[in-house]
Structure formats: C-alpha cells, structure tokens
Amino acid sequence: MYDKSDPRASLAPAKAGSLLSQTGLVAEPQVARFYQAAPQIVDATGKTWLHRGHNFLVAYSEAAAGMPFERVGQVDEYCVLLPKAGGSIVWNGERTEVPGYSIAFVPPGNSSVTVTGGGELVRLFSTQNGDLAEACGNARGYDVPRAHIPPFQPWPEPNGGWKVRVYSLDVAQKEGRFGRIFRCTTLMVNVLDPYEGPRDASKMSPHHHDDFEQGSLALAGEFTHYLRWTWTSDMADWRDDQALEMASPSLLVIPPPVIHTTRATGAGTNLLVDIFSPPREDFSLKPGWVLNADDYPMPD
C-alpha cells in the first residue's frame, strides 16, 4: 500500500498466491545497532561491524587511514560504498581511484579497498563467503532455514567482462524514479534520497515481500521501522506489532512476508540504504530506475 506520490505505486501488483496467509513462515527481524554494539573486528584496519541476512551481509567499518581491507579468494562480486571520504580499490593488479560519495562493484578474486584519509567504509557481500558470514554478530540467526526464500542465484556476468566499476552518488532526483538504484551480479543497492527532517506521517508505504528480505542500513539520522506480522490460521504465527527506533549507523534485516514501512524521524539529514540479494526483478523492469542497467544484464 503506497501513497499515490510514491513511485513504487506504479509497480506491477504482487503475483497471485501471496504468502501472507500461509503458516509456519514467521521469522524475527535481525537487528544491529552498530552505535551501541562492540565491533566484530578490531585491528590495524580500524573497527568493523558485521551483520547478515539470508543472502547478504554488511561490513560497516570505521577505517584507519591508508590501511587496505583485503579479500583473498573472494567467491563473487561485492559492493563498496564510500558515502564521504574517497579511496582506492586494487583488483587483478590494477588500482582504481574511487572518489568520495561513490558506489563501486568489485569482481571475484583477490582485491583490497583503502580509504585514503580514513573514515566510513561500507562493504556488502553475499553470504556465499562463509568466512564473513561466520564472523557476523548474528551468525547463528540463520541456523533455522528460511524455506520460503529461494536458493541464492547470481545474475548474469556484466557486459564487457569483469572489472571494477565505479559510479557517483551525485545523481539528481527525478520524478517517477525511486531513489538511486544500482545492481551487480549479487546485489541491488538503493541509496535513498536523504530526508531532511522527519518523514510526512500521512505518506507512509506499508508493504511486504513474499520471498526475499530487505536490509535497511541507516548511515545518518534516526528512523522508526514499523513491522506487522499478519495473522494466519495458526496462532503460533501471531506476533505483536513492532516499532523499532534505530539511530545511525545501524542495520535492520526485514524477513518476508512481514508488512513493513519506515519513517525518518531525525531533525537533520536522514540517510537510508536498502539492500536486496539477488537484485529485484520488479525494480529492474522499471525503465530508468536502475542507473547502471546497461552494465549488468537481467536473466533471460
């Protein structure tokens, strides 16, 4: 249910056979308030918090200046988000400079990421990388399988072959387009347009996803995430509504088919990044929504 001013109101309606009424699908949200929790990694590179979903995980770092974050034998493509300070990425022996306020995608294999002057670094991976998945603060959160989430399947390799791809986040808002969406073979990342001050409470967007999670990564400001579990015929599925107040940095992984919506509540700038893995087909089918669609083809 979207307000008529929300670009997502133009999405195709959900397929028949929604899971909302099916029983036995209840899972709890995975909550990480990085600003309150101890980091999982403290070493010469800085401090890093790790938190996972079913198919993806987030490594949020307060990076030390000039120290490389290395990946050896990385099994698939990953994402680097530099919201403020710039840095560089080395892959296949080649160095790529990455300005601040950028998003980049790094191919499989050996690579490293450096934040030149130190500062905020966000890396997004698939959970196919077992070493990182096991290091997450909620590593045991998925010991019970989510049977209604399909097995992870990457999207086709990029046009022109593997290389580091860098995109600026300096993208003007456009009527009818939702946020700033980028995709690769493993992830879809929507760096939402910042909210200045609280979101209009009369224009919320409660909705649900049948068979994929949504990660909501807060990088600035404060948010309240509203979650509602639909009643089914089995009372074991029933849960009280939740209103999770979370500051920045933090990550909420919302399980399907929970009904959810989020309200920015901070008085200043509120910045949220939505994460999906693999990429969403419905967003990808909207002309102009995925800003790097020419580089990454959809499945046949």
Helix content: under 10%
- Quickly count the domains: 1
Distance between the termini: 30 Å
As for the CATH topology, it is Jelly Rolls
Number of helices: 2
What summary fits the major beta sheet? 7 strands, antiparallel
Structural class category:
mainly beta
Tell me the strand percentage band.
35-45%
- How many E-type strands? 21
User: Radius of gyration, rounded?
Assistant: 19 Å
The CATH superfamily bears the name Jelly Rolls
Q: Poorly predicted ranges (pLDDT <50, ≥5 residues)?
A: none
What is the succession of H and E elements? EEEEEEEEEEEHEEEEEEEEEEH
Account of the 3D structure:
With 300 residues, this protein is mainly beta. It has a single domain, classed as Sandwich (Jelly Rolls). It contains two helices and 21 strands. Strands 1, 13, 14, 15, 16, 19 and 21 form a seven-stranded antiparallel sheet that branches. A hairpin with a 2-residue loop joins strand 7 and strand 8 (94-98). The radius of gyration is 19 Å and the shape is globular. The chain starts with 29 loop residues before the first strand and ends in a 16-residue tail after the last helix. 37% of the residues are buried. InterPro entries: RmlC-like_jellyroll, RmlC_Cupin_sf.
List descriptors:
single chain; 300 residues; mainly beta; Jelly Rolls; 2 helices; 38% strand; globular
Task: Describe the secondary structure blueprint for this structure.
Elements: E1 30-33, E2 41-43, E3 46-52, E4 56-63, E5 68-74, E6 78-82, E7 87-91, E8 94-98, E9 102-106, E10 109-115, E11 119-126, H1 130-135, E12 165-168, E13 180-183, E14 188-191, E15 195-196, E16 214-220, E17 223-228, E18 242-246, E19 250-254, E20 259-264, E21 269-276, H2 281-284
